[in-house]
Amino acid sequence: MSHVFISHSAKDFDALLELHEALRAASIPDWYVPNDGGSRETANQSIDDAFAMIVLVSASSVRSKAVKQDVERAKARGLKLIPYQIDKARLNGFFKHEVLPHLRLSSTTPDGLKQLVAETKQAYKKKCPVVAVMNLKGGVGKTTVTSQVFGAWQGALGGRILLIDLDPQYNLTQTFFEMDVADSSAAEDRSVISLFEKSRLHARDASSPADSWLTLSTDPFAPTRREKIVHELMGEGSPGGRLDLVSGQFEISKYAFASDPTALEMIKEHFLQSIERYRSDYDLIVFDTNPNATFLTRCALEAADRVLAPMHADIYSLRGVRLLNQVIKEQIPADKRPDLSVLFNAVGRSEQSSFEADARNGTYNAKAGFDLARALMRAALPRSGHLQVKAPQEGQPAWKQLTIHSGRGGGLKPIRESLKAVALELKLLLEDA
């Protein structure tokens, strides 16, 4: 579980607790040694597991041997430093050299703590970006992209990846598991609905939110441990690594019929808090979504850092992308608005179609309603039977559904290279954001 490490002097405990509470309210996990005389080995391990380090800069911390060791460890690990000055400390030579170049935030400035939390939140999101695979037209390959591109990402580029099935038809789940497995998981609330409402995963005496389409549970809950809700796709005999799935279910369709806006807003906040919590367990989170503008669409867009929109080289797919961009611009608050990347899917292998060429040259920018040419990824996925979604065979492990690890027949190598090219380009886009 990743966290932000807080380096501090024991004399700065009040400032430490104030910061801890502010981070907790923002759903950012943190870790700190209760005093600066704690175990060095424990502190080093916690620093190694962190995504960033906040240094409380004070008159006592600049003289602290433990704080100096913390900063040296962070530098050796290439960890992002976020110093925060809490008094008028005079910096010594070490702090001037190692900390001062990063020091921009202070408790004496207006909204200093708020700015610190915002910068930490940005680092937290960068550590584990969230991608929503979405197009407001069906049949463009969203489930194929979610499973195969990000399966290739995990297989070729590594990292811990969580796939979340936000489509009530739960085709992503059925890509990896037979229907009865998906349904039995949903029957135990070990499924996507437990990201929105309190369920039997959170409390034994809770009722299942899937049992009633007429009520919405707004009771607060702490997101459950990932082991209780996910399905591990890289099981026995797999090449290894972590690729997990939160399975889908039809009952999340109930939110489209709910008429209580206050309850829906609270349930959306539950979902957003759950995603923020699971960022600490993964390096990438990916949503497979439905092709409609619904409550689930809003939830996915507000949680996502980037939208990946697959489209075919035709005017109908373009219309879906145009509507998607319109929803993002008009319905999502500016501070939560994700970036948009567009991926051509199922294109010809031998030569570029005139539609694709025109789109890349800007011909369709006006029809798209935005700079489509700029949003288009350079890589594209070819039309291939290897990428068609197939039902899993009985007894076959889930990871065998991934083209990067399985499959036979001619042309498989270039298909795998195309998947890896898309994954690598997207990874670079997320890192540069």
Automatic annotation (TrEMBL):
Superkingdom classification of source: Bacteria
Any Pfam family: TIR_2
InterPro entries: AAA_dom, DNA_Partitioning_ATPase, P-loop_NTPase, TIR_dom, Toll_tir_struct_dom_sf
Gene3D superfamilies: P-loop containing nucleotide triphosphate hydrolases, Toll/interleukin-1 receptor homology (TIR) domain
BP GO annotations: signal transduction
Location of the TIR domain: 4-116
Residues in AAA domain copies: 130-331
Protein name (record): TIR domain-containing protein
